Amino acid sequence: MNKKTIGIYSTGFLLSFVFILFSGANLTQPSFTFPPDEKLVLSHSLYILLMGISALYAHYQTITPNKPLRFTTVISAYCKGTLYCLPFHLPLTFLAAYFTDNDFSKESETLWGVHLKASLLFIAILNIYFSVLFFLVKKGNTSQKAPGLSLSQGFILGSIGQQTVHIPIDEIVFIKKHKHKVLLYTFDHRKIASPEKFTVISQKLHPAKFHLLSSYFLTRPEAIQHIEPTEGHKYLIRLAEPYNEEVTVSAKEGEAIQEWWHQEIINS
After folding, report:
1. pLDDT attached to residue 38
2. What kind and span of H or E run contains 166?
3. Does the 151-267 domain belong in CATH 2.40.50.1020?
């Protein structure tokens, strides 16, 4: 883990530690027995499960927000997150138990009840903390510009994994808006994520050359395989291989694109 990751987790768990100690623990009768009751073991398991989910959320939303979501990477991030959390969990458990009345015969405040409450509160606070942190990190990332390089110079800023790349405009076949990022499709069949805003790219990248398809922009007519009208005053546009995308647009937009497409084919 780098210093940024350690700082994120340390601050989050420091905040949660305060809430665990003051979430209804009985400070007047400190006691602890070993081995713990099976209900306590159950609450421990739930605690670790929820903690792993929070760690997974933090891992994706604050540390690697642009990483593609795959099943293997989800499992990997969950396991890593749980392992990162485990060293914090053990001392907090013993401290919470020490400052809690663990008489399970009472129907009032029992150790597993307090611990379970503290666990849920822990998750709520941690998720709020990481949500705010994610907003700040994302806001900082979107405001960053490539040093000494801009769209007007014929490049688009992109990223492949953790590597930052600059894609020449002439190599792009089309761009696609996808959730909170833009995907760049190139002639050599690469699909590259870009932190640049879709509207910024569409306004600055040779407007006469790019044709809006809802959340798409095309740069070349050969990217289109077929255009046909469909029901409901819509047009269906099929993109050529290897992209194999289908886009539905309005009739007005479809007619304009079809006219441009036919004209480009005739001219070529």
Report:
1. 55
2. strand 163-168
3. yes
